[in-house]
Amino acid sequence: MKFLLARGASVLVSASALVLGGCGADGPVVWPISGATDGDFPLSSTFGPRVRTDDDVYDFHRGIDIAVPEGTDIYSIAAGVVSEIQEDTSAGGMLVKVDHGSYYSTYVHCSEVDVDVGDRVDAGEFIAESGKASNGFAHLHFEIRKPGDNKKDCVHPLDVLPYTDKGAPTLEIGKVDMTTPLQPKVTVTARVGAGELDLRSVSVATYEADAAAILEGLVPLSERTYDIETWNRTYTSSESDVVIDDPNNEGILVRPQKYNNTMPAQEIDFTFTGLVGTVTSGMLRVRAVAVDVKGNKISVESQ
Ligand SMILES: [Zn+2]
């Protein structure tokens, strides 16, 4: 507990953060950075498919990035036991992992770690200082792993962190490519607004029905879903990131718009193939659904 005495400000911050924070199954939950509390999170990158800001490369991001200067205090988000500390030679900096009972939180690119493995920590307790990634970008990379502590167990951190939900994503059916009517390609664009970044899944279903038919209750010809957490669990292998980092994996082409901490909205185009169409284009109807972390749902239909 020596660091608490040396860090009076941290104790004050954690006390106010406890008031602002949510309450999970294992007790109160706060943000890992002071000020980045409910409704105020300067994320430079969110969970899921992304185009990296530094090099334009597509990859799958298993956490959220909070852009903060090196040396910023990092707090445990909830009560738990420090289960792992290691130098992360490829990503840069130190990794700290805390076991919260039913899930783990990890704090990556730390410049200094002020706890030891086995230490008990409380929600809002100072554990480390932020650093920078090996590419030079100063930020905290933060993950929630549930129920295990492997990369494939990473889930959307907004599942656990408190935040102000602003409602359902928006969704648009773009192109329905009927070059081969029995095998249409459908592009949809899902968006969440500034400060939201909580998209969970996008799915597309095809139906054989005329323009006047009500699709609700009809059996689709085919349906495909890109669920971000399921995708991570299915395609993360402990040996290689090659499969999950392919933007055209399993015939679902994922094209995220690049985003950063001055434009924290999220927009992703998905082009689904592997769908079943109809012999004539006039009888093909398409329905797309997007769901966010809070379960808000939007569905749109083509005519
Ligand atoms: Zn990151």
Question: Which properties best describe this structure?
Answer:
3 helices, mainly beta, 303 residues, elongated, disordered N terminus, single chain, Immunoglobulin-like, ten-stranded antiparallel β-sheet, binds zinc ion, four-stranded antiparallel β-sheet
Itemize the secondary structure elements and their pairings.
Layout: H1 2-6, H2 8-20, E1 22-24, E2 27-29, E3 43-45, E4 48-51, E5 58-61, E6 64-66, E7 73-75, E8 80-87, E9 94-99, E10 104-113, E11 120-121, E12 126-132, E13 138-145, E14 154-155, E15 170-177, E16 185-192, E17 199-208, E18 222-227, H3 228-235, E19 252-256, E20 266-272, E21 284-292, E22 297-301
Antiparallel strand pairs: 1-2, 3-6, 4-5, 6-13, 7-12, 8-9, 8-11, 9-10, 10-12, 10-13, 12-13, 13-14, 15-16, 16-20, 17-18, 17-21, 19-20, 21-22
The protein binds zinc ion.
Protein name: M23 family metallopeptidase
InterPro entries: Cell_wall_metabolism_enzyme, Dup_hybrid_motif, M23ase_b-sheet_dom
GO molecular function: metalloendopeptidase activity
Give me a quick take on this structure:
The protein is mainly β and 303 residues long. The chain has three helices and 22 strands. The strands form five sheets. Strands 3, 6, 7, 8, 9, 10, 11, 12, 13 and 14 form a ten-stranded antiparallel beta sheet that branches. Strands 15-16-20-19 form a four-stranded antiparallel beta sheet, with no helix packed on it. A four-stranded antiparallel beta sheet has the order 18-17-21-22.
